[in-house]
C-alpha cells in the first residue's frame, strides 16, 4: 500500500479536492463509488471533509464559495514556496485566481489558471502534506492536463515546475507524460474528444478495484457516463461527471 508522510517534491500532483453545493450528498456519492470514509474538519474550515482510504488522506470535499460557482475537481501541484510559484505563474502567462493564502495548521495554497486557461492549485505543505495514500483503489492514481493548446501548456509547466516530457506509444501525438525529478507523475495533452466548448482542465483518475462496479454505483448515484468502462493499453478506465457536474475518471486493471 503506497503511503507517504513527507512533503511531495515540487511539481508533483499532491492533492485533489472538490467544491460542491451539498457536501452531504457528495460524501454519500463518493463513499459509494470509491469506498471513502470522511472526517469533517469542522466549522472553522467550512466543514471541509477529508476523504480517507485505509485511514489515510486521499482527497477533500468542501463547499462552493459562491452560489453560481460550478463544481469541479482541482488538482494541486506541490511547491516549497507558494509565493515564489505564484510569481512564476504570473510571469509565464498564467493568472492567479486566489491566494497565496494560509490554511491554518495545514499549509499555504493558491489557485490559478495556466497559460491555456486550465485551472490548477498549488500546495505548500505545512501540517498536511496532501495525499497520504496513492496508486491504490480509493486513491489518486493518475492525472491528465487536458488543454486546448498542449504546446503552450507544456511550455508553461516546464517554466513553472521544471517538467520534462516523453511521448506515449499508442496515445495521441500531442499527449506526453510529464516527469518530476526523473519520475513520471502524470500526463499533458489535448482535449481528447471532449465536447466542443469544454474548457481546459486537469482530470483526476481514482483507483477502483472493480471499474465496472464503480461506474455502476456512480450511475445509481446520479452520475453521467462520458466514457463507458473499456480496456486500454494503460488499464481499464471510465470517465464520468458526478451528480454536480464535476468530471473524474476511475481506473483499474483490464478485464479479460
From TrEMBL:
<dbReference type="InterPro" id="IPR037523">
    <property type="entry name" value="VOC_core"/>
</dbReference>
<dbReference type="Pfam" id="PF00903">
    <property type="entry name" value="Glyoxalase"/>
</dbReference>
<dbReference type="Pfam" id="PF18029">
    <property type="entry name" value="Glyoxalase_6"/>
</dbReference>
<dbReference type="InterPro" id="IPR004360">
    <property type="entry name" value="Glyas_Fos-R_dOase_dom"/>
</dbReference>
<dbReference type="InterPro" id="IPR041581">
    <property type="entry name" value="Glyoxalase_6"/>
</dbReference>
<dbReference type="InterPro" id="IPR029068">
    <property type="entry name" value="Glyas_Bleomycin-R_OHBP_Dase"/>
</dbReference>
<feature type="domain" description="VOC">
    <location>
        <begin position="139"/>
        <end position="256"/>
    </location>
</feature>
<protein>
    <submittedName>
        <fullName>VOC family protein</fullName>
    </submittedName>
</protein>
<dbReference type="InterPro" id="IPR052164">
    <property type="entry name" value="Anthracycline_SecMetBiosynth"/>
</dbReference>
<feature type="domain" description="VOC">
    <location>
        <begin position="12"/>
        <end position="125"/>
    </location>
</feature>
Amino acid at each position: 500500500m503506497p503511503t507517504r508522510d513527507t512533503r511531495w517534491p515540487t511539481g508533483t500532483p499532491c492533492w485533489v479536492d472538490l467544491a460542491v453545493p451539498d457536501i452531504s450528498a457528495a460524501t454519500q456519492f463518493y463513499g459509494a463509488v470509491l469506498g471513502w470514509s470522511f472526517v469533517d474538519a469542522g466549522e472553522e474550515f467550512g466543514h471541509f471533509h477529508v476523504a480517507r482510504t485505509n485511514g489515510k488522506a486521499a482527497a477533500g470535499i468542501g463547499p462552493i464559495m459562491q452560489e453560481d460557482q460550478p463544481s469541479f475537481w482541482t488538482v494541486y501541484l506541490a511547491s516549497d514556496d507558494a509565493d515564489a510559484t505564484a510569481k512564476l505563474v504570473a510571469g509565464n502567462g498564467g493568472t492567479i485566481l486566489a491566494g497565496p493564502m494560509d490554511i491554518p495548521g495545514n499549509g499555504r495554497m493558491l489557485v490559478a489558471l495556466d497559460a491555456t486557461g486550465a485551472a490548477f492549485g498549488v500546495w505548500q505543505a505545512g501540517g498536511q502534506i496532501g495525499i497520504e495514500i496513492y496508486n491504490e483503489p480509493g486513491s489518486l492514481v493518475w492525472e491528465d492536463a487536458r488543454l486546448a493548446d498542449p504546446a503552450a501548456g507544456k511550455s508553461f509547466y516546464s517554466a513553472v515546475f521544471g517538467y520534462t516530457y516523453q511521448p506515449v506509444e499508442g496515445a495521441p501525438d500531442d499527449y506526453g507524460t510529464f516527469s518530476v525529478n526523473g519520475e513520471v507523475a502524470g500526463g499533458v495533452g489535448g482535449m481528447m474528444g471532449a465536447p466542443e466548448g469544454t474548457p481546459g482542465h486537469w482530470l483526476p483518475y481514482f483507483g477502483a478495484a472493480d471499474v465496472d462496479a464503480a461506474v455502476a454505483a456512480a450511475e445509481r448515484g446520479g452520475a453521467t457516463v462520458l466514457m463507458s468502462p473499456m480496456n486500454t493499453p494503460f488499464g481499464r478506465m471510465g470517465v464520468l461527471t458526478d451528480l454536480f457536474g464535476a468530471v473524474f475518471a476511475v481506473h483499474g486493471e483490464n478485464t479479460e
